[in-house]
Automatic annotation (TrEMBL):
Gene3D superfamilies for this protein: Glutaconate Coenzyme A-transferase
The species this protein was found in: Puniceispirillum marinum (strain IMCC1322)
Protein name stated in the entry: Acetate CoA-transferase YdiF
Top EC category: transferase
Catalytic residues (positions): E323
Pfam short name (any one): CoA_trans
A molecular function (GO) term: acetate CoA-transferase activity
Length: 511
């Protein structure tokens, strides 16, 4: 083998043809994002108008809510279509979707990772129950997020009397990927990366589609110096490698060996979250944990549950997982959601979603945007914006118990919490409990068919999904049932005969 695989970022960008389908990897905050390759493609387009008419596919969110990641591809005529699992990190792409300047599609993040594996294997798409009853079901929206999106990406199949979804294969022309180290032959190690995600699946999908696999890495090492078990992508799959000596583990993270699992840092910060209404929600949700549970935490208030667990030094009581493929450790939050300090294991993302899809999760703590009278939850399209669920559908539809965590309303709400009680000073302008959600990201009826245990936890009330509908089972101390809850909902829930008052200790600054 020769070194002719090693080229510049601009040379790599020149390999992308007009109308190509590009496979991209990332997880927000710069996680395994091929930042230099993205920048080179954008630079070429702004200079020459090419490549144009691109289709971009990605399982999780990529970007910084400003200029990087998917924002690099958010130019008129550059991108024609996006099939993305999560869009929040790219407001520019959201804007293009809102104005029908692109064809906007959303598929579940785990489904997209597993679909790339099916493409690599030459199989006829992904056949799964994941997504039934949600907006990706073709009997609803089929994953289409605007009127410009008209193609069929998914269809219903019946096997042995049961309905399944078949996600149609999407061949990949170019994969823009990131690793840590390449040897002279182009074997790729991910040794310094905070997660594996679906890097191998995407590389194999592009290679076996007859496309090109381009890697960005931090450094090159001599032939034979990478131990075989550290090579995650063999050189047979790799067409080109670009060296970026300034590559970071994340936008704001240069390098931390405890994040990549190469070393253990015994001095991990374990600060308890600040006392607030959000903390009340997390405290109440945390009571649903039981020893030995396999757990997933979603973004936002749910990751405060993880912070409480860490502050209590209780991580060892549970099997904590991240959909990116990571197990154990102390989970990070905010822009570093998806990273973990001192993880115990890192597997590939498609394999993680296999485990989830088959019912491996005992409990999932997830956020919500809207809840309706049927127990449906919307997190994927809010106020007309394409948000996307990331791994939400794959997780929520398959965990034995799901605890949805969120504030009761939003938009200027002012609450007084302390001394064991809660009072509403000013209600939020936007109610979250609607007669019907704008888009079904989680199906209450499907959950009932699957016999899942579903709770909806807010700072002033806790609800449970039952066959007869949403049932109010707890209210906060100090809250007026009619004025603060029922009058602020667009539907009337069932009320438990043994309606309980939430534990007053949740509403005190110190437990």
């Amino acid at each position: 083998m020769s070194d002719d695989k090693f080229i510049s970022a601009d040379q790599a960008a020149d390999l992308i043809s007009d109308n190509a389908t590009i496979g991209l990897i990332g997880g927000g905050g710069g996680l395994v994002e091929a930042t230099s390759l993205h920048a080179a493609v954008e630079r070429r387009f702004l200079d020459s108008g090419h490549p144009r008419g691109l289709t971009c596919i990605h399982a999780l969110g990529i970007g910084d809510r400003d200029s990087r990641g998917m924002n690099r591809f958010a130019h008129k005529d550059m991108t024609r279509r996006v099939i993305g699992g999560h869009w929040v990190w790219s407001p520019r792409m959201q804007e293009m979707a809102r104005h029908n300047e692109i064809e906007a599609y959303v598929l579940p993040g785990g489904v997209m990772m597993q679909l790339m594996r099916e493409v690599a294997a030459g199989r006829p798409g992904l056949i799964t129950h994941v997504g039934l009853g949600t907006f990706v079901d073709p009997r609803l929206d089929g994953g289409r997020m605007n009127s410009a999106a008209t193609d069929k990406l998914v269809e219903v199949m019946t096997i042995d009397g049961k309905d399944y979804l078949r996600y149609l294969p999407i061949p990949v022309d170019v994969a823009l990927l990131r690793g840590s180290v390449a040897d002279e032959d182009g074997n790729i190690s991910l040794e310094e990366e905070p997660a594996n995600l679906d890097i191998y699946a995407m590389a194999a999908a592009a290679h076996n589609s007859g496309g090109k696999v381009i890697f960005q890495v931090k450094r090159k090492v001599v032939r034979g110096s990478l131990p075989a078990r550290e090579v995650r992508i063999p050189s047979a799959l790799v067409d080109a490698v670009v060296i970026d000596s300034g590559q970071r583990q994340g936008y704001e993270l240069v390098y931390d060996a405890a994040v990549s699992g190469q070393k253990v840092n015994p001095n991990v910060p374990r600060d308890m979250p600040a006392f607030s209404a959000r903390m009340v929600i997390a405290r109440r949700a945390r009571t649903e944990l039981h020893d030995g549970a396999v757990v997933n935490y979603g973004f936002g208030i749910p990751d405060q549950v993880a912070k409480i667990v860490a502050a209590e030094h209780a991580e060892g009581r549970y099997y904590q997982t991240i959909e990116h493929g990571t197990y154990g450790g102390t989970l990070l939050d905010g822009d570093l959601f998806g990273y973990a300090l001192n993880p115990s294991s890192m597997i590939d993302g498609p394999s993680q979603f296999d485990f989830y899809s088959g019912g491996g999760l005992d409990i999932a703590f997830l956020g919500f945007g809207e809840i309706d009278a049927h127990g449906n939850v919307n997190v994927s399209k809010l106020a007309g914006n394409t948000v996307g669920p990331g791994g939400f559908i794959d997780i929520a539809q398959n965990a034995a118990k799901v605890v949805f965590c969120g504030t009761f309303d939003t938009g200027g709400a002012k609450l007084a919490v302390g001394d064991g009680t809660l009072s509403v000073i000013t209600p939020g302008r936007i109610g979250k409990f609607k007669q019907d959600v704008d888009q079904i990201t989680f199906s209450g009826s499907q959950a009932l068919r699957q016999k899942q245990d579903i709770l909806y936890v807010t700072e002033r009330a806790v609800f449970k999904l039952t066959a007869a509908g949403i049932c109010l089972i707890e209210i906060a101390p100090g809250i007026d049932l009619q004025e603060n809850i029922l009058d602020k909902m667009a539907f009337t829930p069932l009320i438990a005969d043994d309606l309980k008052i939430m534990d007053s200790s949740f509403f005190t600054e110190t437990l």
